[in-house]
Amino acid sequence: MPSIIDAITNRSSKRAYLPKAVEKDIQEKILHAAGMTPSGANMQPWKVYAISDEKILKDIGDAIIATMNNGVENDQFIQYYPVKWTNPYKKRRVETGMGLYSLMNVDRKDTQTRTNMWHDNFRWFGAKTVFFVFTDVANIDGAQGALIDCGAYMQSIMLAAQEFGIDSCPQGSTTEFGKVVAKVLDTPDNLALLYSVVLGYADNDAKINTYQPKRVSLEESIVFI
Ligand SMILES: Cc1cc2nc3c(=O)[nH]c(=O)nc-3n(C[C@H](O)[C@H](O)[C@H](O)COP(=O)(O)O)c2cc1C
Question: Which domains does the chain have, with CATH numbers?
Answer without folding.
Answer: 17-80+123-209 (3.40.109.10)
